[in-house]
Write a structure and sequence with these properties.
single chain; 68 residues; 2 helices
Length: 68
């Protein structure tokens, strides 16, 4: 996988995974309140900002450590 396609896939994966996880967690913990979208998008942005570096730097390190 080329670095450019790796970067694209990292952003897409982070976008998809963080969006449905944060949606579910906010819905369960807060409920569908008046400002649900604001709370969800704020939570999603924070999760996304943590997920991208994790996928770019931590995941390859773990993958290399798990190789036989």
């Amino acid at each position: 996988m080329t670095p450019k396609s790796n970067l694209k896939s990292t952003f897409v994966i982070a976008l998809i995974v963080t969006s449905y996880i944060t949606f579910t967690l906010v819905a369960v913990n807060v409920g569908f309140i008046k400002n649900f979208i604001y709370v969800w998008l704020r939570s999603w942005l924070i999760a996304f900002l943590f997920a991208v570096p994790s996928l770019l730097y931590v995941a390859p390190f773990v993958r290399n450590k798990l190789k036989p």
